[in-house]
Amino acid sequence: MDFTGKHILSVGQFERADIEHIFTVADGMEPYALRQQVTRVLEGAILGNMFFEPSTRTRVSFGCAFNLLGGEVRETTGFKSSAIAKGESLYDTARVLSGYSDVICMRHPEEGSVAEFSAASRVPVINGGDGANEHPSQALLDLYTIQKELKDKGRKLDGLRIAMIGDLKHGRTVHSLMRMLGLFDRVQFVLISPSELAMPESYIDTARSQGHDITVTTDLAKNIGNVDIVYSTRIQEERFASKEEADVYRGRFRLNQAIYTQYCEPNTVIMHPLPRDSRADANELDNDLNHNPNLAIFRQADNGILVRMALFALVLGVTDQVHKTARPVNWFHSRSVNN
Amino acid sequence: MDFTGKHILSVGQFERADIEHIFTVADGMEPYALRQQVTRVLEGAILGNMFFEPSTRTRVSFGCAFNLLGGEVRETTGFKSSAIAKGESLYDTARVLSGYSDVICMRHPEEGSVAEFSAASRVPVINGGDGANEHPSQALLDLYTIQKELKDKGRKLDGLRIAMIGDLKHGRTVHSLMRMLGLFDRVQFVLISPSELAMPESYIDTARSQGHDITVTTDLAKNIGNVDIVYSTRIQEERFASKEEADVYRGRFRLNQAIYTQYCEPNTVIMHPLPRDSRADANELDNDLNHNPNLAIFRQADNGILVRMALFALVLGVTDQVHKTARPVNWFHSRSVNN
Amino acid sequence: MDFTGKHILSVGQFERADIEHIFTVADGMEPYALRQQVTRVLEGAILGNMFFEPSTRTRVSFGCAFNLLGGEVRETTGFKSSAIAKGESLYDTARVLSGYSDVICMRHPEEGSVAEFSAASRVPVINGGDGANEHPSQALLDLYTIQKELKDKGRKLDGLRIAMIGDLKHGRTVHSLMRMLGLFDRVQFVLISPSELAMPESYIDTARSQGHDITVTTDLAKNIGNVDIVYSTRIQEERFASKEEADVYRGRFRLNQAIYTQYCEPNTVIMHPLPRDSRADANELDNDLNHNPNLAIFRQADNGILVRMALFALVLGVTDQVHKTARPVNWFHSRSVNN
Q1: What count of CB pairs under 8 Å joins A to C?
Q2: What Rg value do the Cα atoms of chain C yield, rounded?
Q3: How does the average pLDDT of chain C come out, rounded?
Q4: pLDDT digits (tens, 9 = 90+) for B221-264
Q5: Interatomic CA distance for residues A284 and A280, integer angstroms
Q6: How far apart are CA A114 and CA B279, in angstroms?
Q7: Are strands B229-232 and C37-38 parallel, antiparallel or unpaired?
Q8: How far apart, in whole angstroms, are the C-alpha atoms of residue C63 and residue A209?
Q9: Where in chain B is the domain with CATH 3.40.50.1370?
Q10: Are strands B37-38 and B46-51 parallel, antiparallel or unpaired?
Q11: Each residue's pLDDT tens digit, A50-68
Q12: Of A292, B1, B171, C157, which is the most exposed, with the fewest CB atoms less than 10 Å away?
């Protein structure tokens, strides 16, 4: 697939070769994200960063990715004061806003809204999250992170063993991740959740038909011992009748250093779509894991920059030119994507 | 008039020659807006985009116009958390903010506020809308659009026939447009509104004294048949005693494809200041006109970029230098201002 | 102290030599702030301007300072929709956001929050205000302004005579300013406030132990006659039992042209941390002082740009390179930092 001029709306639009191509381009962005070099390939281009639903980190991540390619960012946050709230159609909004920029990243609270918007847009649109539906750059950065973490251990996405934990019924990220992993070979999925929050059958059926191995369970301790990746997600209180009922579940699907040490293989990689709730009673992913070198959650965020830079370079057709304008960085930089 | 260093506050400050000069400069911005070329003429300059009242499209349009000239944009949105809300005078705000940027675009809910602000500002100020008072860049982009649409048909602003429809009493855009058209020769104005929402006498008297032809009517069907432009505006519910009463009027001043086909000359251009309310009961400007090639509403928005680029280039005195830094665009671009 | 890669969190981290170094760098920024020249030294660098509490002028000032060095700005405003509000720890926020930019400026409503954030950040953090605690760039710009104003009169920070007026108990700015002035020699502090709002003893004791001269008084008229600087601050209504009680105090600690003429030495410099409340009953710092050439309040704001440019250049280690990329400004510029 040639990405030039295309919308990025759904993980469903990618073949395995597309994903591998995105990841190769993302690898090439590392010198810029690590501030070893600067590129100005998109100097003069404008990203319309249209967040009709707030999301600081996704918005800033897209914006920084575009700036790192040399482009400018104009943005909006919130919905209440937007013309859409006053009855303007997504068609009109798209026709107007797409006249202002070279590419648009859009987040919107309603499912399907970004696709509807993109149909009227005159520039490529990247879905930055449309309600419970899709958030393809999150799915891509998760998969990219898994691949990178495995590579350091001499393993690949084919043959991956992954445990997904928490609310697998409503979790947009685990659904997308499962769909994309399905494109690879012989994946072992261990799906750990309260039975009320189990992975929908359709995802399981699809993965089985692709030849993958699926385990569905409510028992965390017994099932996280033979996996490469533990992917933890939040169990949201509002899914339950009471806080007490939610707390029971949260305690049971929690991960901390003691549980990790007792049940996981050494070097099992811990992931989470962030933000995590770090309040004492959240029982999600404990802060005592913060210095565990296998905690990959911040590397996920760092990889998000690489993946989003890759998406921009691909839809704007400049992957071949990124390095031509490269020059050294002349200011202090201490960061490392992998520290 | 030499625009360099001047504030742009009101359509009243322009002579006909000024308007024609702005439009010539706007024409020259097309290669940059169409992404055929990039200019960096304002690289290093900063626009203070101060929106003390929200307006996504106007704010983003000004910001993109400045970015397209190579400059940076710093901005604020909203009023509640501003120092003005805590008792700071516009004088103080202006003295402080004008020390930060090279030019300021300001929107504010109160009439006269932008002029008061500009009096204390040490940099040029462009009025981005001050309550019910003025929004000169909107008026300029409307007039610029009319001129461009007519040019394609071998006609000019002199001798223009225009119908203005809707709330002509409160509409800031139709007031400004009528004032500016008054500077041209032999314009035929057809003013179509409920009698409660008629164009104020002062505008009519001025236009008559300038030798223009004015028709005032409440009947849409009989009066849109001999015009070059139909300029439709919203009839806002809050102007009426009840929703029911408003609905009666809205139905009567609505434009859709059937009405257009039955009553208008072929190629009559349809304009609207946007946003339009596209909800089914809004009865404003129907979505079934979306593929009518004479629907110019999105070209209006596109032309807004050209006009705002021109205003920035003029007040910062760089019109002669824009093209000197021009270079080709190296990324994917599909857009056309006139598509 | 070598500032490269360091966090700027508190005025307590500076020695006298550090302050003098910052001021020398700030002096060198004047050609860029005055738009005599443009520098692109930080082209490609990104500032994360993270304002978890609104402050238009501080946010825009930091952003413009970074733009003036050639860098890009990504920012956030407000707290409610942030991940922190949903239970994310400052540790997580810092780890994520510091992967996006080269330097962070952060404002947050809670004392100590910025220091906690900086401990987990992988890039230098500048405190843009953490509740009642610190706002070091404000303190630096105040001190820088004093030095500059005195220089024109042939005087220095050593031997300075300064009156601080208003709420000296809660005022973050006067506390920080007093601490920093304490590093210089033989300062005469005249502390004028209602006794309920007197400067805390700890600040007085420290200054006395450093050999400075302190006068504590409730009488404004008798005590502003022999000083170089009058530094006025707001007396906030909410500190008192009633508006009436507050009004009594406000009237008594007010400064206007008549009081200035009657009691101050000629050329006494008037300062205020801004914003000032200019409503008629605020009784703070009267608008009739606006054309008094000794009113330095807007020069303070202008100097803020210079000081913030200096801080960015220092923590990113580019002070030696700023001038290497200098080039002339090709657009209209009328501003003068000192007008």
Answers
A1: 103
A2: 20
A3: 92
A4: 999 999 999 999 988 777 777 878 777 777 788 899 999 999 99
A5: 9
A6: 19
A7: unpaired
A8: 53
A9: 11-134+304-328, 137-297
A10: unpaired
A11: 999 989 999 999 999 999 9
A12: B1
Is residue A187 pLDDT above 60, yes or no?
Answer: yes
Measured between CB atoms, does A278 come within 8 Å of chain C? Answer: yes
CATH class of A137-297: alpha beta
Amino acid symbol at A305: I
- Based on C-alpha coordinates, what's the Rg of chain B? 20
- Residues C30, C148: contact at Cβ < 8 Å? no
Closest CA to A184 of A158, A213, A150: A158
Q: Where does residue A238 rank: exposed (0-12), middle (13-18), buried (19+ CB within 10 A)?
A: exposed
Work out the widest C-alpha separation in chain A, in whole angstroms.
Answer: 58
CATH class for the region spanning C11-135+301-328: alpha beta
- Mean pLDDT calculated for residue range A260-265: 97
**Dihedral, B184, B187, B192, B198 alpha carbons, nearest 10:** 50
Question: C161 pairs with which residues across the strands?
Answer: C188
ipTM given for this complex: 0.94
Which residues of chain B are within 8 Å of residue A41 when distances are taken between CB atoms? 330-331
Minimal CA separation from B331 to chain A, in Å: 5
**Residue A156 CB coordination number (10 Å):** 13
Cβ atoms C88, C65 nearer than 8 A: no
Among residues A7, A21, A39, A58, which one is catalytic? Answer: A58
Residue B50 phi, psi (nearest 5): -100, 95
Measured at the alpha carbon of residue C134, what is the angle toward residues C129 and C140, in degrees to the nearest 5?
A: 90
| CB B284, CB B276: distance < 8 Å | yes
For residue A118, the chain B residues in CB contact (below 8 A) are none
Distance from CA of C116 to the nearest CA of B (A): 26
Would the CA dihedral through A266, A272, A274, A279 be positive or negative?
negative
CATH code given to domain A11-134+302-328: 3.40.50.1370
Question: Which of C91, C93, C102 lies closest to A331 in CB terms?
Answer: C102
Looking at chain C, the domain(s) classified CATH 3.40.50.1370 span 11-135+301-328, 137-297
What is the number of other CB atoms lying within 10 angstroms of the CB of residue B262? 10
Q: Per CATH, is B11-134+304-328 categorized as 3.10.20.30?
A: no
Sign of CA dihedral B97, B103, B107, B110: positive
Domain boundaries for CATH 3.40.50.1370 within chain A: 11-134+302-328, 137-297
The predicted-structure confidence for B183-236, as pLDDT tens digits, reads as follows: 999 999 999 999 989 999 999 999 999 999 999 999 999 999 999 999 999 887
Q: Given phi > 0 = left and psi -120 to 50 = alpha, else beta, which region is A190?
A: beta
What's the pLDDT tens digit per position in C290-332? Answer: 999 999 999 999 999 999 999 999 999 999 999 998 999 999 9
What are the start-end ranges of the E strands in A198-257?
213-217, 229-232
Distance CA C223, CA C217 (A): 8
For an interface test with B, which of A74, A103, A318, A323 has the most B Cβ atoms less than 10 Å from its Cβ? Answer: A74
pTM score, whole prediction: 0.96
Higher pLDDT, C107 or B248: C107
Is B107 catalytic? The answer is yes
End-to-end CA distance of chain B: 34
